[in-house]
Amino acid sequence: VQLVESGGGLVQPGGSLRLSCAASGFTFSSYVMSWYRQAPGKERELVARIDNVGGDTYYADSVKGRFTISRDNAKNKMYLQMNSLEPEDTAIYYCFAPTGNWGQGTQVTVSS
Known about the structure:
Blueprint: E1 2-6, E2 9-11, E3 17-24, E4 33-38, E5 45-50, E6 57-59, E7 67-72, E8 77-82, E9 91-97, E10 101-102, E11 106-110
Parallel strand pairs: 2-11
Antiparallel strand pairs: 1-3, 3-8, 4-5, 4-9, 5-6, 7-8, 9-10, 9-11
């Protein structure tokens, strides 16, 4: 199983980023997938979750209305569109599969 995140970077407050997670080694379309994040000095927290067909989603209150999770099962990829970014969104973002595997993470820094 391999999960590879990409798309992080440095962005100004109010800006946008789109994260991607490329999955391999398991039947991607059979699993709920999630995005987590971990800020410096804080515990890893769930950001968003999407069911296996993309019909049901969950968002943490802190990102609701600003972030959108999606997936493309034909490409074995999951995405997180992040809009109206705030300094509090600064963290390493990870994708997670219920197989128990984590990606290496991608750094998102929101700063002027």
